[in-house]
Design a protein that fits this description.
With about 425 residues, this protein is an alpha/beta fold. About 50% of the residues lie in helices and about 15% in strands.
């Protein structure tokens, strides 16, 4: 939220956001984040007013935009998702594999309730979904909000900007031919003044390994794919080694973040703590350690300074709001309903693709057809998402079991059943799943 508020502070144009309402179920967190925002806006004369509430309906009433960033079960839930999966020898990452399924089963019922409340209380609002698994949650909310919910993620934007920079192109003038699902997409072209510059990158192994994804995947794999995958595909292409690295880690990512976040809020309860500086140090540490195990497996080294800079989620969100509120037309990679963009999927399936955005919302545009290796993963994972949606809406335990069993990174139906049994033991929020 401080990153988003920072982006709003830099917008001084007519029709800018003038009021921000913070909502949280935890008053302690709410107070801490409100302090951070107060310090950010202290010297900005026209800073958007900030109010805080623990009443959801009050927060929604009159809103033009709703940012949905929730974590059902908190970071303790994420840590449990990771540990249960790793104990079964499969990936527990919060959006990929078994961990993502468990997180989705907990989150979708809450997201559906939120969507219904928005539709009732703020029917004209545009919903910007940050909540993971972003594509799955956006699709769930779209069943009640239609095209007025848009999912955003900074991964494809960051990937496209890194590719443009190594090619010597202006990232703001490059067109990224990208398609897939959230955390499951590929760059198949990067156009500058109508010319595709990606073949030049793929033909140069040294250039290929000069940026983060190139070091993560290696030039040989990227040249064989003829595309640059989203960093999360490392969990698929190097799954065995990634699982082993996470099993050997001292703590899971969720456990690390839980300790870090608890430390942040403890410091914020101390009088005199500099709110913004404390938050920013915490953010920087979080970013520096992102996907550390994957980089270790790949021998990719530490993250570069340019990858730690802000300008991801918050700038995408600001550009999206400007386009919708002021008709400042732009192109962004977003999670939206498919229409006819990827022919293998139905029109209501939420996909992650380039969109033209204007006052009428986000409109997906044509992209290159996905090759079979990519299409197979996309359709398999969409089948998993649909099973999660069925389970969340009907309470069907059989559908939940199917979601685990169908996932490409869960290699056994027996393991899938054990995962579901264990997750329902550790997460009281999954009690809605029946025993049928």
């Amino acid at each position: 939220m401080p990153l988003v508020y920072g982006a709003l502070l830099g917008d001084h144009a007519e029709g800018r956001v003038s009021r921000v309402t913070l909502y949280d179920t935890d008053a302690d967190r709410l107070t801490a984040v409100a302090r951070v925002l107060a310090e950010q806006g202290r010297d900005v004369a026209d800073a958007p007013a900030v109010v805080a509430t623990t009443e959801l309906d009050e927060a929604l009433r009159g809103a033009d935009f709703v940012f949905s960033a929730i974590r059902v079960g908190g970071l303790a839930g994420r840590a449990a998702d990771e540990r249960v999966a790793l104990d079964e020898g499969v990936l527990g990452q919060e959006t990929v594999g078994a961990g993502g399924i468990a997180y989705g089963l907990r989150t979708v019922p809450v997201a559906l309730d939120l969507a219904r409340r928005i539709a009732r209380i703020a029917p004209q609002a545009w919903v910007i979904n940050f909540t993971n698994p972003a594509g799955l949650v956006t699709e769930a909310m779209s069943r009640h909000l239609g095209d007025r919910v848009i999912g955003i993620c900074d991964s494809p934007v960051g990937l496209g900007r890194r590719i443009a920079r190594v090619l010597g192109a202006d990232p703001d003038r490059a067109w990224i031919d990208y398609a897939g699902l959230n955390h499951l997409g590929w760059v198949q072209g990067l156009y500058v003044e109508g010319r595709d510059e990606l073949p030049r990158l793929l033909a140069d192994p040294q250039l290929l390994e000069s940026f983060e994804e190139g070091r993560l995947f290696g030039a040989e794999l990227l040249r064989s794919l003829g595309a640059i995958p989203n960093e999360y595909l490392h969990y698929y292409y190097v799954n065995r080694e990634a699982v082993h690295a996470y099993q050997q880690a001292e703590r899971t990512r969720g456990a690390f973040l839980q300790d870090q976040q608890e430390g942040f809020y403890a410091r914020m309860r101390e009088p005199g703590t500099p709110a913004w500086a404390t938050w920013d140090r915490t953010r920087a540490e979080r970013e520096a350690t992102y996907m550390a195990e994957n980089r270790e497996v790949a021998g990719a080294g530490e993250r570069e300074e340019s990858d730690l800079e802000s300008g991801g989620y918050e700038q995408v969100a600001l550009a999206l709001m400007r386009a919708v509120a002021r008709n400042e037309r732009t192109s962004l990679i977003l999670n939206v309903r498919n229409r006819t963009t990827l022919p293998a999927l139905d029109e209501d399936a939420v996909v992650e693709v380039p969109c033209l955005v204007d006052a009428n919302g986000a409109h997906p545009v044509a992209v290159s057809p996905l090759p079979y290796h990519a299409l197979g993963l996309v359709t398999a994972v969409k089948a998993v998402e649909r099973a999660v949606l069925e389970a969340a809406e009907s309470g069907s335990r059989a559908a939940a079991a199917q979601a685990f069993a169908l996932h490409p990174l869960v290699d056994s139906v027996t393991v899938a059943r054990r995962l579901l049994d264990r997750y329902t033991e550790v997460h009281p929020g999954l009690a809605y799943l029946d025993r049928a």
